[in-house]
Amino acid sequence: MADLMLLGLFDNVETTADVIDDVRDLGVSDAQLEVLSNIPYPAKFFGLKTPGLMFWPFVFGGAILGALVAYFITFITPDLYPIHVGGQELTPVPPTAIMFFEFISLFSMLGAFIGFLLQNRFPILVREMYDELITDGYIGVQVQIEESVAEQVIGVFEKHHAHKINRELASEFKPQGIRHLFFWGAVAGGGLVVMLVPLLVSYEKIPLPWINKMNQTVVVGYQEGPRLAAPEEAVPFQGPRLIAGQPGTEPLEATESSIARGAALFQLHCAICHGETAQGDGPLSGYYTADHGFPVGVPALAGKGYPGSYIFEVVTNGRVGQTDDGTEFIKMPSLVENVSPGDTWDIINYINSLDAE
Ligand code: HEC
């Protein structure tokens, strides 16, 4: 068991190299030897081997980690929260390839960097057998040996005129291993927390009120109640319904299917007043009498030959009447919110396909 630490101080490189040769002859291995100096001499100056750095496992490990992260972002999250945009695949190939490239590059660089630090035994967390003379330019040869060999090593130091020899118990110098494990464990743990906290916030596992106002926004899905009325200034996506009092859209051709659609829509929106076949005899028509201020009643529409643009305008604006004292009242409500321009043309085709009875 190695239980003594010796430090001999020498004033030049050649002597130090000779000392190391002689100490080696005593059966001391390179692992027990350490050269301390204030100038970073290459190890080969002292006949020591430069420890070869092994990067590829770190680079390779980093690349695999990067690929996993890219896989998570490009395959797993879009599957968990699917948003289909423009008929695209959830994981389209070109951007996915870019993500993989980026993450693999980034993480292999990170791996190489961490590997470099690890292999250089960063950070030094233990006390080294330091002597202030080293700062003044002396070179220290530190040897860790069993007590039985100590005298021989000291003999070598003295033979080469060591400026000073320090000896201490090796048990004073704990190995770095455990401390390193703690250090890198703490770094990894800290990194994990730094990565997890934003995720927890964005998935609202940790709700921060100022981050996301989305949950306070009223969202009304398509045909989900309550339907909100369009704002006053809103223009339908087909464009304005009426331009200068005329339909803003082209009539639809009176095909069989258009008339069939029109029939169904007419039953839905108009028949309650105008009657199933537009004879002016719907269930509500009984109410539209002169007594209630409707001298005309509900007019028949079938066989009248009204131009499409006329019907279109009435459906859009409705009909407003006036009482004798001039107050306005609704005779036929505007159905602009209920019937789209296309549907209106279907209804018109249906009306024009009917004959008066
Ligand atoms: C709530 C009852 C009611 C509904 C629903 C209704 N109308 Fe009317 N409509 C009337 C009344 C009442 C008049 C007569 C207005 C007047 O006296 O000027 C009328 C007038 C009309 C006129 C003018 C007729 C003319 O002789 O000048 C047309 C065209 C018309 N409606 C089409 C429609 C169409 C198409 C629908 C369905 C999309 C519809 N209406 C839905 C009550 C209704």
Trace the largest sheet across and list its strands.
2-3-1-4
- The CATH level-2 architecture of the domain at 245-352 is identified as Orthogonal Bundle
Tell me the name of the CATH class of the domain at 245-352.
Mainly Alpha
Flag low-confidence runs.
Answer: none
- Output the radius of gyration: 45 Å
In round numbers, the mean pLDDT is: 87
Q: In one word, what is the shape?
A: rod-shaped
Classify the helix fraction into a percent range: 40-55%
Heteromolecules bound: heme C
Largest beta sheet, briefly? 4 strands, antiparallel
Q: Figure out the total of helices.
A: 10
**Full CATH superfamily name of the domain at 245-352:** Cytochrome c-like domain
| Total E-strand runs | 8
Instruction: Please give the alpha-carbon distance between the first and last residues.
Output: 119 Å
Keywords:
357 residues; alpha+beta; Alpha-Beta Plaits; Cytochrome Bc1 Complex, Chain D, domain 2; 8 strands; 41% helix; rod-shaped; binds heme C
Would you kindly provide a written description of the structure presented here, covering whatever features stand out?
By secondary structure, the chain is of the alpha+beta class. Among the domains are: about 5-55 and about 120-175, Alpha-Beta Plaits (2-Layer Sandwich); about 245-350, Cytochrome c-like domain (Cytochrome Bc1 Complex, Chain D, domain 2, Orthogonal Bundle), CATH 1.10.760.10. Helices cover about 40% and strands about 10% of the residues. The strands form three sheets. Strands 2-3-1-4 form a four-stranded antiparallel β-sheet. β5 (about 240-245) and β6 (about 245) form a beta hairpin. It is rod-shaped and about 135 Å long.
